[in-house]
Write a structure and sequence with these properties.
Layout: H1 21-37, H2 41-53, H3 62-85, H4 87-106, H5 111-139, H6 144-175, H7 180-183, H8 185-199, H9 213-236, H10 241-263, H11 271-275, H12 277-307, H13 312-318, H14 320-340, H15 343-359, H16 369-372, H17 374-394, H18 404-441, H19 446-475, H20 480-485
Length: 491
């Protein structure tokens, strides 16, 4: 998770080390693990949930996008609420709300109930995650070594959470039920809330603020209309009046959001943050990467379980090399960026990721995991692990002190929003390609049609990653010294 509230973390801090700081770290790490894990844990469970609740092919992506869209769309507002509303109070409320939303999803009787619960999970995560990071920031600020250990633990959980999610999702789906992928959060979140009430001290940023509610509404409503437009395109066609109206409304709402942000005295997204060349390149690359990458997990999960006939647990284990590659490559990239600057690792890494995703287009009905899935999976993970540290560093180049929180949060927001849009768009593309293939070849080729749809989606996703690599090469010009600082500037 990005350093969402670092710029205001000094408000209400203490000069001496908190004797409960390691207990606070444990609570924050548990909360962060839930947030990251819940974006991926349902990926493996999705085929079972779709069958149990009768979810259509067009609508299945809402299990993913309802969470990521609410999370990404409300994250900036959530950071402001946490800082000025009281970090401890907001954190505990977020945990309790997350538990309630998880219970609602685990007990869902129909698809609408599940989608709504996932959106609520994302909304509560959007206030819980920045509150957690802000609590961590103000707790560990006196001892540099302790601070490094704390953020190292936080970063490790953030990096490994996706892999833990797909593995946990596979185990729970196979040996319990897909519902436990959501219900498992309930006891964990409630225990974390009780622990937080005992060990975390209240703190808030100094001064008063006004929340940019119009900006939050316009941005979230615009993105929702865009995702829904992509979904309706699968069932009604791209040229249908419903699809065109939804896409048109999305454009109007998002344009209105930009106008509101220019005129607001307390904007959710200060336009100066995205106007600097390097930062703009980082945010656009993050958006494209999220759009191209998130759907990959969904389609590979369906391919392994529906075509290769893997069990849910076996499919979860099959994703582990991806996580391992990212962790190893990210460690190497962290040492490389200060030496060569962020441009080369970003452009090269995203380019390698695009090649790996393009390689996945070669899957077939009878191809093997060992020859057609594992090699491109490893290639993608190495490329993305190489790019991510450089991307995060570039997001803070030359940013003002008062904007450092929103600037770092924007990377995660861009990835989540990109994931929402990409999953919706590529799900529609895959479903349309599958339907066209089956219509041309006959229902006896249904499985081949599914694989064809996945391959088309992988090809477009690869194009998005390739475009992200080009954006990085063109926009990012920061030198190694600038990138090393990642430097907020005065003003």
């Amino acid at each position: 998770m990005s350093e969402i509230t670092a710029s205001v973390a000094a408000g209400g801090t203490e000069t001496q080390a908190d004797p409960k700081r390691w207990s606070i770290l444990a609570v924050v790490v548990v909360a962060q693990l839930m947030v990251v894990l819940d974006a991926s844990i349902v990926t493996i469970a999705l085929p079972s949930a779709q069958k149990a609740l009768g979810i259509s092919v067009a609508n299945r992506q809402w299990v993913i996008t309802a969470y990521t869209l609410a999370f990404g769309g409300l994250l900036l507002l959530g950071g402001r609420i946490a800082d000025f509303g009281g970090r401890r109070r907001v954190f505990i409320m977020g945990l309790i709300g997350f538990a309630a939303a998880s219970a609602l999803g685990g007990l869902a009787a129909n698809q609408a109930m599940l989608f709504g619960a996932r959106a609520l999970q994302g909304a509560f995560a959007a206030v819980m995650a920045p509150a957690a990071l802000s609590i961590l920031t103000i707790t560990f600020q006196d001892d540099a070594k302790e601070r490094a250990k704390a953020f190292g633990a936080y970063g490790a959980v953030s990096g490994a959470g996706g892999a833990i999610g797909v593995l946990a999702g596979g185990i729970l789906t196979q040996y319990a039920s897909w519902r436990w992928c959501l219900l498992v959060n309930v006891p964990i979140a409630l225990l974390a809330a009780v622990a937080a009430s005992r060990v975390v001290h209240e703190s808030r940023a100094e001064g008063t603020t006004r929340y940019d509610i119009p900006g939050a509404f316009l941005s979230t409503a615009g993105l929702l209309s865009l995702v829904y437009g992509f979904t309706k395109a699968e069932s009604d066609g791209w040229g249908s009046s419903t699809t065109l109206v939804l896409l048109g409304v999305a454009v109007i709402l998002l344009a209105a959001f930009v106008l509101v942000e220019f005129r607001s005295s307390h904007p959710l997204l200060p336009m100066r943050v995205v106007s600097e060349r390097n930062r703009a390149g980082a945010y656009l690359a993050a958006l494209l990467t999220g759009a191209g990458l998130f759907a990959m997990f969904v389609f590979l999960s369906y391919y392994m379980q529906g075509v290769l006939h893997y069990s849910a647990m076996k499919a979860g284990v099959a994703f582990l090399p991806f996580a391992a590659g990212i962790i190893v490559a990210a460690g190497a990239s962290s040492s490389l960026v200060p030496k060569v600057g962020p441009r080369l690792p970003m452009a090269l890494g995203l380019g390698i990721g695009a090649v790996g995703l393009a390689w996945l287009t070669q899957i077939g009905v009878a191809t093997s995991y060992w020859t057609h899935v594992l090699p491109p999976e490893i290639l993608m993970s190495v490329g993305l692990g190489l790019a991510f540290p450089a991307l995060s560093s570039t997001a803070l180049v030359k940013v003002r002190n008062q904007d450092s929180g929103v600037a770092s949060a924007l990377v995660n927001t861009a990835q989540q929003v990109g994931g929402s849009l990409g999953t919706a768009l590529l799900n529609t593309v895959a479903a349309t390609a599958t339907a066209t293939y089956i219509a041309a070849h006959g229902p006896v080729f249904a499985r081949a049609g599914l694989v064809h749809g996945y391959s088309v989606a992988f090809a477009i996703g690869a194009g998005m990653l390739a475009l992200a690599a080009i954006v990085s090469a063109v926009f990012v010009t920061a030198g190694r010294q600038t990138a090393m600082v990642g430097s907020p500037v005065a003003g």
